[in-house]
Amino acid sequence: MTAAFPWFFRFDPLLHPSLHTVAQALPKMTSSDPAQVHALQHSGQQALQANCFEEAIACFEQLAEQQPEVMAHRVKLGLSYLLVGQEDAAQLTWAMAFSEADETEQSELLATLIEDMQAKTEEAAAGGNWPLVWALTQHLAELNPENLNVRLHGILAASRCQLLTPDLLEESGLAEVLGNNAIVPPGLDRPLLEATLGAVVEWDRGDRQTLDWIVSVASPIENREGMANLLVKKATQIRFEVTNQARQFDQAEALDLAIAYTDAAIHLHPTSFNAKYERIAICIKKADFVAATAYAEALISECESIQEKICTEGLLIQGLIYTPGHWDEALVHLSKTRQLFDAFIEAYRANPTMDISAVMLMRPVLFFQYVEDNPADYRALQNQLSAIYAENIQTKYQASLPPLQPVSQPDPARKLRIGFLSEFLIRHPIGLLSRWIFQHFDRDRFEFHTYLQNAANLSEPISPFSQEWFVNPVTEAHVVAGSVEQVAQAIRADQLDILIDLDSLTSAKGYALMALRLAPIQITWLGFDATGLPTVDYVLADPFVLPETAEKDYAETLWRLPQTYIAVDGFEVGVPTLRRDQLGIPADAVVYFSAQVAAKRHPDTMRWQIEILKQVPNSYLLVKGISNSESLQAAFLEVAQAAGVSGDRLRFLDRDPDEPTHRANLEIADVVLDTFPYTGATTTLETLWMGIPLVTRVGKQFASRNSYTMLRNAGIDTGIAHSAEEYIAWGVRYGTDADLRNRVRERLRRSRQSAPLWNAKQFTRNLEAAFEQMWEHYLKRSAS
Questions:
Q1: Is omega for the bond preceding 677 within 30 degrees of 0, making it cis?
Q2: Of 58, 91, 228, 570, which residue is least crowded by CB atoms under 10 Å?
Q3: Strands (E), 294-438
Q4: Which of 314, 329, 251, 226 is nearest to 277 (CA)?
């Protein structure tokens, strides 16, 4: 016996007396009926091929008894035992057969066994019987250790059986063989390699060791673009896990790993637009806007289509607008994007079947709201683009969706089925603001369904926060994952009466789903401004958040709730970690505070805030927000220097570890200065809840009127400006009139008990009344 044979073939009767006894006890028949032997051989082989393993065992047991000298019968019998899970019997049978065969016969038997086991492995893999594949490959790896396809099948089976580990990948030796081999090993099954790598990427929990293994093993694959797309998908999943707080991990490390996945994809497929685009998106998520801008500028020069150029311009604009000091560059690229949209619209009219990306139509238009208060212009463009998108995606998917059910006669006892769709039913502004209605809705009259949109097929989509606020209280919670078509089919099959999109222009998949008309009535509420989709019937507003002249700018109907379009019962507040003495600010100084993302810091607003500081002696400005910190500081200091204000009067704060701490630290402020033309929303609510006076400027667009409606619905009419001059004047007045500040603080404190802004229960009643009225209108239209 050679050392190449596996351990269970290296049989020594002296070391295994029990096996020797069994072997000696077998009948030593030297003659048998040839016809019977032939029939049994045929039946056994047929049964083995037909997966009738019990029948195969019966045949080969008889053959082994009739012809004990023919070791091939015992090898077939051992394989049959293995295929029914009797591994011990298989090993015993093989051990006896190989112990009695000479070296030449052993080699022949081994070749036959390997051939049969490989055939069964491929057959089991084709049928999806992964436990059997796993069992077979464990033996094949011993029998034929040089066969790379056996190792690949083993890893594929381990991933399907939830047995895969990084150590198992390393122990396979594939990285050493394939990663250091410039020539593809002969006999390597490349489709199997691609399928195995795809399974590993899908299984991967996100660690550097696994990624390194994937990159090493991927060298010989032919479909490099497909493999690159799988790696990009993994990078996107990691980014969404960070966004959705789906599991506990170091976010910075996770995003670095996500970038490593995009780099690996680019290594495999250097011209991959998807990989380079995702790398920029991850940099933005990391708040590394300088890198994002550099990558986007490089990618624009490589773009081949109008769609790719528009998508990349959107990321570039985001990178620039989040990097103070680059506002003029952002305006230039917004102008270029507008021209690209004109070219796209013309191209679409010539080819209505062209593939359209939702992101392409959402991201760039979004940033018009940050740079100017001109809703008539950007809303017209948004409405036009959304109409094109709805037409395009309906052509693509509508035929595969369950039909909307016809409306029957009204049933007074029937509850209205209301669905709420969002990627952000998590600890996110949308989640924090919407959560209260699910506590207060009337369960006797309504069914409230939540659709926790799982944009990247997250492994753990429901956090404890989501479970508490969006799963436990509702009629039914749904985690919707998969393709747009799969999610659309699931939602339409639920036969909702009303579907509410909470994300608006912040979710590409949500935008696509709303374009498919999944419920008789569809509404936009709470996210960014309305999408302009012709399939959305209503946008929830109130008497203040949109001016009376706004109706003409919207493709949707504006439904104005009687008081406020948003209300909360309050916010969790932690323990403050900021003190004036820690920041070197005198106790008697006036502290202004501004906490917004850099994209909202229009240069004009920065100049107004510095002018207020200039006119109020012994005052300081605290600045906090998401941006490149060096760029943010440089931009503010440049404005201060131009105005003759010492930079010593500015303080730049890091982000707090959590929202409760942030709210507690707001108490350091005497006055909060809002941004324009994109005002605060959640930050404004938090400011007013903490009882701090706010200065805001009112514009014409939704984004420039959030703080205005919140102040009015908190019962406050001071601090509201309609021009730059009024904004500065209010800032100065608040800074120089301590009595005014104290009166407003007291009014805000009292408002917690009486103002519409802090009465989520009454807001929910108003929302429910709107739903019923919308449904009545719908029934009347359907009956006419």
A1: yes
A2: 570
A3: 416-422
A4: 314
Residue found by looking up tokens 């789906």 in the block? 246
Residues composing the chain: 784
The set of residues, in sequence order, having a beta carbon less than 8 Å from that of 604 and lying 6+ positions away, is 676, 724
Half-sphere exposure of 430 (CA within 13 A, CB side): 25
Taking the C-alpha atoms of residue 1 and residue 107, their distance in angstroms, rounded to an integer, is: 9
- What whole-number distance in Å separates Cα of residue 92 and Cα of residue 109? 15
* DSSP helix/strand/coil, 619: strand
Q: Name the 3-class secondary structure at 639.
A: helix
The mean pLDDT value of the chain amounts to 89
**pLDDT tens track for 114-166:** 888 888 888 888 889 998 899 889 888 888 888 899 999 999 999 999 999 99
Distance between CA atoms of residues 368 and 374, nearest Å? 8
Q: Which two tokens stand for residue 535?
A: 């399939």
- Identity at 784, one-letter amino acid code: S
Q: Which residues contact 92 (CB under 8 A, 6 or more apart)?
A: 19, 22
DSSP letter (8 states) at residue 406:
P
Q: What are phi and psi of 444, to 5 degrees?
A: -80, -20
- Distant-in-sequence, close-in-space partners of 298: CB < 8 Å, separation ≥ 6: none
Kindly state the DSSP code that residue 15 receives in the 8-state scheme: T
Please state the three-class secondary structure of 153-190 as a single string: HHHHHHHHCCCCCHHHHHHCCHHHHHHCCCCCCCCCCH
Closest among 551, 440, 521 to 774, alpha carbons compared: 521
**Distance between CA atoms of 766 and 643, rounded to whole angstroms?**
48
CA dist., res. 531 & res. 510, Å (int)? 10
Q: Which of 4-13, 564-573, 614-623 has the lowest mean pLDDT?
A: 4-13
Bridge partner residues of 417 (DSSP)? 447
Distance CA 663, CA 645 (A): 28
**What is d(CA 326, CA 696) in angstroms, rounded to the nearest whole number?**
24
Of 461, 734, 535, 502, the residue nearest 616 (C-alpha): 734
CA distance 744 to 719: 10
Spatial CA neighbour of 538 closest among 326, 199, 546: 546
CA–CA separation, 387 vs 301, rounded Å? 29
Full set of structural domains in the chain with CATH: 7-181+188-248 (1.25.40.10), 287-399 (no CATH), 412-560 (3.40.50.11380), 581-758 (3.40.50.2000)
Q: How far apart are alpha carbons 652 and 578 in whole angstroms?
A: 12
The set of residues, in sequence order, having a beta carbon less than 8 Å from that of 110 and lying 6+ positions away, is 5, 9, 143
| pLDDT > 90 in the chain, percent | 60
Q: Residue 52: which of 84, 18, 4 has the closest Cα?
A: 84
pLDDT for 40-64, tens place per residue?
Answer: 888 888 888 888 888 888 888 888 8
Show the tokens assigned to 342: 């004109």
